């Protein structure tokens, strides 16, 4: 009964569940519509991307929810997807802070994160703070 689908596989959430979609109607200037017809292949994808970009840090780019957004000195996280959406630069030395101990690289499993740089308090990162134990 199912025809082979063209295009990309459906977008899924962190549990592999297909993200449900809905139709929206927009009223926009005709010239803008003509421009979009010329330049944008997939308006649905484009709209989703643009809105997500505009609200980066307020909604999650994976689950599109704002329910699990958590702000920390190091950056902004979706606690449901367990992804960091935005990482802040250390206000003391300017190095990007990164609390992820491991990262996924290619097909490999988690490897130690070469940029691992957790925050110490709200102002300093590991790079500019000597931790004496
Ligand atoms: Zn999320
Ligand atoms: Zn620093």
Helix amount, in percent? 10-25%
Strand order of the largest sheet: 1-2-3
Beta content: 15-25%
Q: Helical segment tally?
A: 2
Tell the overall outline.
extended
- Note the main sheet: 3 strands, antiparallel
Total beta strand runs: 7
Spans of at least 5 consecutive residues with low confidence:
none
Write up this protein.
A hairpin with a 2-residue loop joins strand 1 and strand 2. The protein is an alpha+beta fold and 133 residues long. The termini are far apart. The mean pLDDT is 88. It is extended. It is 17% helix and 17% strand. Strands 1-2-3 form a 3-stranded antiparallel sheet, with no helix packed on it. It has a domain of 57 residues. One zinc ion binds next to loops.
Give keywords:
133 residues, alpha+beta, three-stranded antiparallel beta sheet, 2 helices, 17% strand, binds zinc ion
What's the SSE blueprint?
Blueprint: H1 30-39, H2 43-54, E1 69-72, E2 75-78, E3 83-87, E4 102-104, E5 110-112, E6 119-120, E7 124-125
Antiparallel strand pairs: 1-2, 2-3, 4-5, 6-7
Bound molecules: zinc ion (2 copies).
């Amino acid at each position: 009964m199912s025809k082979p689908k063209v295009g990309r596989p459906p977008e899924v959430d962190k549990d592999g569940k297909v993200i449900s979609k809905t139709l929206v109607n927009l009223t926009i200037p005709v010239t803008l519509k003509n421009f979009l017809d010329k330049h944008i292949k997939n308006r649905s994808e484009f709209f989703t991307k643009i809105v997500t970009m505009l609200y980066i840090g307020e909604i999650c780019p994976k689950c599109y929810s704002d329910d699990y957004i958590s702000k920390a000195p190091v950056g902004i996280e979706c606690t449901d997807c367990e992804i960091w959406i935005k990482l802040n630069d250390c206000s003391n030395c300017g190095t990007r802070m990164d609390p992820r101990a491991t990262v996924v690289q290619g097909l490999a499993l988690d490897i130690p994160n070469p940029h691992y740089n957790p925050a110490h308090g709200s102002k300093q990162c590991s790079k500019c703070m000597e931790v004496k134990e």
